[in-house]
Structure formats: C-alpha cells, structure tokens
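Fig. S4 source data, part A: sequence.
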Amino acid sequence: MSTLLWIFYGVVTLWSIISIILHGSRPTKSLSWLLAVVLLPFAGPMLYYLFGVNRRKFKFFRLKQTEKRKLFDEKYKDIHELENSVDFKSSKKNKLSRLIENGTLLKPYAGNNATVLNGGEETFESIFKALEKAEHFIHLQYYIFSEGELSERFYKIFKEKIAKGIEVRLIYDSFGSATFSGNTIKRFKNIGVKAYPMMPIRFGSLLFTLNYRNHRKMIIIDGITGFTGGVNVSDHYIKPISDLGIWNDIHIKLEGPVVKSLHRVFIKDYYFASNEELLLKEKYIPKIEQKGKHTIQIVAAGPDSKQPAIMQQYISMINLAETCICIANPYFIPSTAVLQALKIAALSGVEVSILVPKVSDSKMAKLSMFSRFEQLLAVGIKIYLRTDFSHSKMILIDGEIASIGSGNFDYRSFEHNFETNALLYDTELTQSIQKEFDTICNNYIALDYESFKNRPVWQRLTEGIAKFFSPLL
C-alpha cells in the first residue's frame, strides 16, 4: 500500500512540475510553486492543483457563465459608444482615463458628488441613511457579508423596504461570507431578498473557482446613489471583536452619472451569478442628472478580464506622478513591475510615501510585505507603520488624482479577484484626502533604512521564506 501511495505521489508531483514549467505565467511565481510542490509532500501538489493551475487557459474561462460575461461586454460596448466622455485638459488625466477606458469599457464622468467616508461608523451611518430613502431597488455586492450586528440592521431595513415593494438583490462571496449561509441566508431569502453567491463553493466547480473571489464592496440604490471602497459588512469595523481592535478603512459615497458605471459592474456580476437578464431594462438604468463638480471613473477587473486593469491603473499612476505618490494598503505585496515602477519614481525625484499597518490579520502577508521594505527604503521611499489595523486601499498622486477601492497591492487583487476602484480626478478632493494621509503619517516615525537593514537575521530569514510564497497569497 505504501509503495502504491509513493508511486501516486511521484506521478502527481511530476505532473505538477511539468504543468508549472509549461504553463507558468511568471518565473518568480513558477519558482514559488516549484518550491511548494517539492518542499511540501502531498500538500504542495494539492495546493498547486487548487490554487496554482492557470485556469485562464482551462475550464474556468470556458464556463457558460463566463461566456455570458463576454457577451454582456459586447452589449455594453454598443451602449458605451453612445455616451459622452470627459475631455481633460491635463495630459496626465487623459492618459490614465484612456488606459482604463480601453481596458474596462468604463468612461470617466463629470458632474458627480463624492463623499469620502472614514471608518466603519461613518460609512455605515451614511449607508443606512441612504437605504432608508430607497424607492425602487437596492443592489449590494460584498466580499464579506457576515452575521452580526451590522447584518441584523441590514435585515431590518430590507424587511421594511421589501414590504413596501422595493426590490433587494445581494451578491456575496462564498469564501469571504462563510457565516452568511444556512439559517442566516434563509432568513434573508424568506423576506424576499434575492441573494446569490458569485462563485459558489460546490463540489462540481470547486477546483475551477476556489482561487477566484468576488472581492468587491458596493451598493447601488435606485441606480442613482452608489457606495464603494474597502469596507465589508463585518462587525470588525464598528467594535473590537479581535486582537486587532476596530478595523480602520475608507469608503466613498457617489452621486451622479458615474453611478451608472458602478451599477453596470453589479449588473454584469448579477447576470453571472443569477442567470437573470432583467436588470438590463431601462427601469434599472435610469438617466442620471449631474449632482456635483467631481469627475470620477470606475475601474473594474476580474480574472476573466482581458486586461489586468487594477495593476495597470496602479503602475500608470506611479509612472505619471511628477511630485508625490501616497499609498495606503494593508497587503502591500507588489508585483515586480509595480516594485520597479515605485523605485524608478523615487530615483527620479518623486516623493513616495507608503502607509501600512504594523499589525495584520495574516502573519504570512505581513512577513512578505516586510521583505520588500529594505529595497524600497534604500531608494528613499518613506514607509510608515500605523499601530491600528488599517484596511484602507488607496493611492494618490501629485495632489491631483486619487483612487479609493477594494484593490490591494498584491498578486491576488491583480490576477485572481473581482475588484472595483473609484478614480477621482479632482484636486480639491484629492488634497483633502492627502491632508488626512499626512496627518496620520505625522503621528508615526518613518522606518530608518540603516536600522531596518540591521534587523535580526532570524527576522530576515522568515521574511525571505514568506517572500517566496508571496505570489500565492
């Protein structure tokens, strides 16, 4: 029996190695998987089969639902061509907006009102007020929609609204929303909430979908008001239910024509999750009047996108920066391309500041993140460690353009997750966000290069090991 087991193990390991060599998308990622397969008997090949196989070339991108998403893009493109775009006077904004438009079919819109929301209390206070005003429908999409105090408040509002004839639809991620199952989801469905997992964790499709997650966080109300950012529906954002304390994050409320783009992202995903086409009707895509002075563009990408739009957005913003770059992110594990772009910017005289939490909900992610700091500090990049757990995901350049959303600076957000960011082409709004960023940074002392590079050998060793596995995180 043991001989047969070892023969089986040898065959599976050999298959994994051959598959990595033939289909690996990047040498560094391939090396990480080779190490995992060789150093972790049985577990390595299993992890590779679950999370490492490049399913862009295999079944996931031949699924019926994925084909429907492509068809939706074609339908949307026809509508998209009829819409007016913003003509920026700035070549910087023109280049960035054109990149996003060509990669996602989403245009920038003028005449919006954006309200930046800091922290869970402020975010959910604004969300619940907006939900109370809903007259036709409420559409939500969350990576984490977890059982707790916040979900109960949503339940009560949904129940009241549905009783008045208002439609409620919810897309959630099966992995992130693990507690939103069983009797909990039945309660919501029993009052009329149309709830669907984006990619359900089922035996038949598990191996082809487990590694791809719906990481978006957004709400659309009546097609005219929207919310997006990094805040999930989790009590972590309103009370200290773990050793990390209350999670800090940033979200944004949107009113105006750009909500149409945000809603189209939801409609496409709902089409994918539910097999319903009814949301393409005019009832759900109303004409939206201008509400303010902000110009905004939605950036949306996923594992089935033709372009890695989130990564391209970040690299473009870094390359376009002339004076300063400010980044806040809880999982700062950049790809080689992003890392080099940041180093080039710093060496070119651009002031680069990175704000990350000193504590993390993932020890491996934290170690991998710290493994990159020495080379960034060496070129003059300032890195600040805040003591609370900041879950915010944003990048600002030159006090002119800001991005707030769900996209992290890691391989998972760049390649495996469905993500959504809001690009704000507004100097006044960007500078107000940067002022808050600078205030937080001023409360901490930037890491010192000489001190950091002399950290204990055991710490550098553990960080180095974690770095090998960073493409897998």
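Fig. S4 source data, part B ends here. The two ends are 35 Å apart (CA to CA).
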